[in-house]
Write a structure and sequence with these properties.
With 361 residues, the chain is an alpha+beta fold. The chain has nine helices and 16 strands. The protein folds into two domains: 217 residues, Immunoglobulin-like (Sandwich); 128 residues, Glutaredoxin, CATH 3.40.30. The strands form five sheets. A five-stranded mixed β-sheet has the order 14-13-12-15-16. The protein has a four-stranded antiparallel β-sheet with strand order 5-4-7-8, with no helix packed on it.
Length: 361
């Protein structure tokens, strides 16, 4: 049988938008045994199903296993899962109630509830995440409790980053735009790191890691970080600090005279500088040159008319390379008047669109 599961994580769409969710993942690893058992009062004769979301058709679920609740209200499901993941446990009743659960190899999940309380108070036991899952069910079926649920998710994820149930709690960590703050994102990073270390190679661990990339970009594009200070010499051997330009929108442009792609991008930067320089915009060019003469010649040849040019003439040994984690040039950092980073590695059309958005009024 082909087993499928998914993990709802964050895929950031663009600057300022609340990230979309529902990333479905297919997994075909060798499955491992799990057991789900217990009692559901007044459930005799009803069927109970273990399901997983189907990759090929969103909203559709594939049945992994089922059992019939006995005359004594007990049931037991023995089946296999491909490893840590997200599943649905459902009873076939008038309301077809269902529970969100996580399962990992070797789990022995137990319930002790009634048909009426199946969704509200399943009384989980036998797994490390039982306490959190019981509280979660009470939260999600309480009217007007989303803010409390979000706070609960943040608290529990921070206290226990390796908890498998964090797969589900993460869906509520950042439900609205105001939740996208440094504290909540840091919690997500801590959970991603814990899953990477404790569940290596699992799809949830991989996806948590992938989503940190998008969240870091979100932070970079939404003024979470102060730009690091740069204090280097101008062509006239005067120190020019990046912080001297605070109060303006500044494009910090890392380039070099020997860099072909940089030289080809320069006309676009010149054009945008001319277009917006009267609207509180300037450029702070940081060269990774080693030859001062070639640096100065390139500034003149490419008509880089802004006054802010600096370099320590150390090439890739420049102090700015590790400071900004520069992997290649051209590389840019866009800074707002408060000295916060609002864009990274913007060039060409993407840079123009960002500046148009800023200066559209």
């Amino acid at each position: 049988m082909k087993y499928l599961f998914f993990i709802c994580l964050f895929g950031l769409v663009s600057c300022g938008e609340v990230p979309a969710t529902d990333v479905f993942i297919e997994n075909q690893k060798s499955p491992d045994d799990i057991t789900i058992s217990g009692k559901i009062e007044n459930g005799a004769g009803m069927e109970i199903f273990l399901e997983a979301p189907l990759l090929e058709s969103r909203g559709t679920k594939v049945q992994i296993a089922k059992a019939v609740i006995g005359n004594d209200d007990s049931f037991k499901i023995n089946t296999k899962v491909p490893g840590l993941g997200y599943y649905i446990l459902k009873i076939k009743s008038e309301s077809n109630d269902s529970l969100e659960i996580t399962l990992n190899k070797g789990d022995n999940l137990q319930l002790n509830t009634t048909v009426k309380d199946f969704m509200f108070n399943p009384k989980y036991s036998g797994v490390s995440w039982a306490e959190d899952a019981n509280s979660y069910q009470q939260f999600i079926h309480s009217q007007g409790q989303e803010d409390q649920l979000s706070s609960f998710a943040a608290k529990r994820m921070k206290e226990n980053p390796i908890n498998p149930f964090n797969i589900i709690l993460s869906m509520h960590l950042m439900k609205k735009e105001t939740d996208y703050n440094e504290a909540r994102i840091q919690i997500f990073f801590e959970v991603a790191s814990a899953f990477y270390s404790n569940y290596p190679g699992s799809e949830p661990a991989n996806n948590f890691q992938n989503q940190t990339i998008f969240l870091r970009k979100y932070m970079e594009n939404n003024a979470f970080y102060d730009v690091p200070e740069i204090s280097l010499n101008t062509p006239n051997n005067n120190i020019l600090n990046l912080s001297d330009l605070k109060g303006k929108y500044v494009l910090v442009d890392f380039w070099a005279s020997w860099c072909g792609p940089c030289r080809r991008e320069n006309p676009n930067v010149v054009r945008l500088y001319k277009k917006y320089r009267k609207k509180n915009f300037t450029v702070y060019s940081v060269s990774l040159d080693e030859d001062g003469t070639k640096w100065k010649q390139a500034i003149k040849m490419d008509n880089l008319i802004w006054p802010n040019h600096v370099s320590d003439l150390k090439g890739w040994n420049s102090s700015v390379v590790p400071l900004f984690n520069i992997q290649g040039i051209p590389y840019t950092v866009l800074v707002n008047p408060e000295g916060k980073i609002i864009g990274v590695n913007l060039r060409g059309q993407e840079l123009e669109e960002k500046l148009t958005e800023i200066f559209k009024s």
